[in-house]
Structure formats: C-alpha cells, structure tokens
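Bug #77: duplicate submission created two jobs. Keeping one. Sequence:
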Amino acid sequence: MGGLLLGRPPTASAAPARAVPRRYTRAEWSARPPKAAATVLNRAPDHIVVHHTASANATDLSLEHAFTLSRAIQNFHMDTNGWEDAGQQLTISRGGHLMEGRNRSLAAIGAGDLVVGAQTLGHNDHTIGIENEGTYMTEEPTAALWDALVATCAWLCGVHGLDPHAAIVGHRDYNTTACPGDALYALLPRLRNEVAGDLGMRRRVREAPPPEPSGLPGPRFTFDHGPAA
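Kept job's structure:
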C-alpha cells in the first residue's frame, strides 16, 4: 500500500548528522509522478546497500547526463518492471551528482525514517539503496563517483546513527547477484574505512585484495543488477 506511515517505539538518538551533500531532487531531474506515494516507515534503515546500475560506464560527467540517467532508470522501473516508481532511494552518477530516486526519500532521510524501496529483494523494509552509475565487474568507479559515495554514506550514517563498518553492504550480500560488480564490491572495505574516517571513527577494516571473478550472475541487459522487488 502506498502512502503509509508505520509507527515504531522510540529508539536511541542518532549520531550527529554530517554535512549534507548536494542532492538533486526529483523535481530538479523532472521525475514522472509515481503511480502511488511511497510507504514511509517510522524507523531508520539498519544497512546501506551499494549497487551498480548495470549500465554503460559513461564518459559524460555532466549534470544533464545525470538527470537523463535518473529519468531512464525511473522509466525502466515503471514501464518495464511495472513498479510504482524508481526502486532505489538514491542514485549517484559517474560525474558524482547525487539524486533522489524513489518519491519521499529525501524527506524520509531528513526525518530519520525509511522509504520502502524496491532495490533488494526481501530486504526493502530495513535497507536504503544507492545505485552507482556504471557496470563495475572489472572497472572501478570514477573519482567523482567515489567521492560522492563516501560523502553520501557518511551523511546517511550520521543521520541514522549507523556504524559504517557494519552498515555498508553490497547487493550480493543479500541476493544471488554480482551487484555491485566484482571491482566495486572489493572496494567496500575501503569505503567503510573512508566513511569511518569522515565520521571520526577508527578505520578498522582490512582492505580487500584485487577482485577475482565471483562467478555470480552479472548483468544481462541495461539496469539488470539482480533481484530487487
């Protein structure tokens, strides 16, 4: 059902929020109206799921391209998958532009709540998903995307009081999929460390060796990054 606000008992206060990265709203990238208002749960997510979009590793790093990407993802999710809206809460382009995905996502984050997405099968009621433009089976993200991902995860961990060492995971940690790609998945220990550093926490995760092929199911077509809804 759309538009619900589901209650929770009071929880411990979140850690102080980090500086909010520049975010582009749905209105700014000209999103279509959703088929229904997203459900908002009156509780914080407990994990941040890192995805790749399983699309081309574009060389156009412009804001205009980022907006085009968001519209393409929304169209695919609504018209091909038959969903009510874009599935992910947030999207980062290869140019490092951070965009709102599913409707009500930014307002929910600001309130310490969770919009129920359609980004990780069986785990949409407790996770928030970030789609990172590109396919990262062998190639690593651009520096701009990486910096934005670190800043975004630090912001989310600060808002929701999450420990990045425990909270940041890949799509494949929940479902049988190669997402977020072998190369980006191998960078998750580094991501946790850099986010922890931004939050003034100890960097305690050993970084992973260079990735080897996982043998997990990779993208079959554009925007196919594994079970979502």
